[in-house]
Input
Amino acid sequence: MKYVYLIFSNLKRKKLRTGLTLMSIMVAFLLFGYLAAIRQAFDAGVEVAGADRLIVRHKVSIIQLLPQSYEARIEQVDGVDNAVASTWFGGIYQERGNFFAQIPVVPEELFDMFPEYIVSDEQKAAWLATRTGALVGRGTMERFGWKLGDRIPINATIWRKKDGGTTWEFDIVAVYDGAEKGTDTSQFFFRYDYFDESRANGHGLVGWYTVRVSDPDRAAEVAAAIDAEFANSPQETKTEPEGAFIQGFANQIGNIAFIIISIMSAVFFTILLVAGNTMAYTVRERTSELAVLKAIGFTDRGVLGLVLGESLALTLVGGVLGLCLAMLLVSMGDPTDGSFPVFYMPASAVVVGCGLIVAMAFVAGILPALQAQRLQIADALRR
Amino acid sequence: MFNWLSQVVSVTQFSIRSLPQRKGSSAAALIGIAGVVAVMVGVLSIAQGVLKTMQSSAGDSNAIVLRSGSDTEMMSGLAGDDTRIIAEAPGIARDADGAIASPELFVVINLPMRSTGTDANVPLRGVQATAMKIRDNFKMVEGRMFEWGLNEVIVGKGARAQFAGLDVGSSIEVGQERWPVVGVFEANGGLAESEIWVDAAVLQPAYRRGNSYQAVYVKLDDRAAYEGFKDTLTSDPRLNVKPMRESEYYDSQSATVYNLITGLGTLIAVIMGLGAVFGALNTMYTAVSSRNREIATLRALGFRAGPVVISVLSESLLLAFVGGLLGAGLAWLAFDGYRAATLNWASFSAITFAFDVNLRLLAEGIFFAMLIGLVGGLFPAVRAARQPIAQALREL
Amino acid sequence: MTDKKVDGTLVRVSGVDKIFKRGSEEIHVLGGLDLEIPRGEFLALMGPSGSGKSTLLNLVGGLDRPSEGAVEIDGQRIDKLSDRKLAGWRARHVGLVFQFYNLMPVLSAQKNVELPLLLTKLSKTERKKRASIALDIVGLSHRAGHYPRQLSGGEQQRTGIARAIVTDPTLLLCDEPTGDLDRKSGDEILDLLQALNREQGKTIIMVTHDIHAAARASRTLYLNKGQLSTEAVD
Output
């Protein structure tokens, strides 16, 4: 790689111009990395969704409740391992902006259905022993600086208490961590018995069921069977795989992938112009030098390689810097303060980013490189 | 003073006339700026579109009454009797049929989106006849109005466009029944266009709501009537309600989505803008260095530094202006009026909207472009003016 | 591989024409030229502007191709080589010295001299060593780390010469080597060239305007309107 020195020396020629082009490239890749994290935030739930889990909800509308009695009937359906009921509590902690999900469940059921929530045995026992106990995800614990033993008041917007009040109080007795990077650790679970006893209305009604099937390959079949069980009843169900359910929500927010790809295309296109322009100028100004190199004995292809090498060196430094900066920015956390419980830059972004670096180097540098290749020595020296 | 001005003019003319020589790099900077402006305007037009949907021209002289403690209709619940008491409050406009107060039921129904095929939560609103009088310019544009008492529905223009199965003649599934879609309505681009409407008396039994509603929409005599109206309701011991101006209500609903998109959009625009600034600086430095000898000669002849700075700057600003215009125009052509749907975080239901590339946005875009041009031209301009003349003259 | 002719002729140019196209016009720069240069000669080429001296130099150096005729160097027909082979040939057999030095401004003197060696298979240490030797020969060792902009005209040209000889080429071609230098520096350069010719037996072809420079050569030829002669035409 003896030519590396020559390539980098040539970039030093107009330090300012090289620097500015480098900055533009860095910015493009910074955006690329950051948007990849945002896209991942929308996709994360789908990725870690259990392949063997289904969601059963009211067919007409997600806000409709289902009878608790459905649980036993669902578990009777062939292929079903276990069914767990959850309900949307929808309360507010201090102010609207502090959003996180609160969900009443039966503790043992939760542990069985969601092995990705890791809790120590003693904390599990503590939760089973405390009626008003809450199991809180690490993310939310850290966000508000809560500690085990804290008493947390939450203002209900949907569920009033029997005594007419809207403030529910919980004691944090357990904390859970996620098994995978994409696991949501922002949720707040509390006990269903406490919930059902204290709520003013809606007894015996739950929001949705999470179902585990014994054979993931039969998931579609089992889903249909569950829906058939409740067809023509007053509360019909719609059952779909957990991943599809979550994807549906993301789709409602918008076609995120499309928007992000469109933006990135626009960005890369414009940066490509800048980089290509710089390379073109570099070659144009140096015709006599390139001619001398050829005179000394560098082949036409050698000179082509040199120019492409410069283009690559430029985009490599800029691109790597941009990706690193993106990683830094992403590590500073969720920019929307709560809407993205999971926020990180996926490894695939780095891989794709590197590929784009090489592609950009080629596209920006190929025309000037070809020009350099075709340079006629005698003509160029004469100029 | 005149001398100085004429210097500015001649140097500027000279530099702009020599632009075609540098068309390669000028074009690059121009397109770069156009790209930034187009993306910025495009993304922000989403937020503007959502905002526009969430506004109504009568905003301040309409009011909404929810149960106290509720933030959205979804969470609220009002007994039928309460809604009658509310309708008797002072300040409500009246016509031949009585008080223009509309008790309404708000639920959500699952329908697949046309674009992805996955389900969306579409608002289904149970109304009475007064509802039409309160919404902005409500009118049927296709089919006919539903018949009161029957299981018929009408759909908003936006809902029909975004969700499958809402054309006139098809029907929606509610529980065991199928309710036919008999007409399409529009309401000045407002929120109602994302919804499906049905007779409240038909919706209540279907959703087991008895004689309850969720909100009362009210048209007031005028803006000023609100205070009296509100005080009467909050001091009535029979009621436990939360009145709001319609505009306030919509603001609170749209806040999350609007802030999210505006925040992200601005972040993206700033980052892209940074890239464009570097690109512009690049171009301008190159522009300046390629004319170093000319500029130095002018200065040697006696032209002052100031006019030189201004000429370089004006070239940069001109490029930026044209680029900004191009980008804004592109954004307007590509995005304005493009229909889409997103999620209303407050009620977890879908709202349809159209991208809105309005004049304010276009102006902001061009202003941003000029800012890029200014920064991109300032440093090269100053450098050109301060370089020692002798050195510049010697450069080949 | 052509057989090497064991006679002392290094350069043999036969029946060479060179035609340039400028737009739709054809310009005959060289016509039916013949030239033989023996090994070890120091040849000066003189003539008015546009006479084709540089063109002839370019043809001998393999920097350009004749429109007609043959160019044979050390028994090899270089006009028949492909572009790629020609590049390789130049790297091994020719050293070039230019009027405006043509050094790379981003490299130090040392690195500039090493440049042709990048095309060989020598190791880094070997390259450094050879470059140092070449710089020593031209008397510039103490300025090896300096950049062209920090060197005087004369020093830059000496660097150029060092670069030209670092590969130990068969032929040294100089195009107006003293054209941009003052008398004193120019003389130093010519001293150097003469030394290379006499002490190291380098064959040198020098194009020049300057009679004093030509006087240093062992033979002078005059080029006028594409024809060679041993006498100057006024």
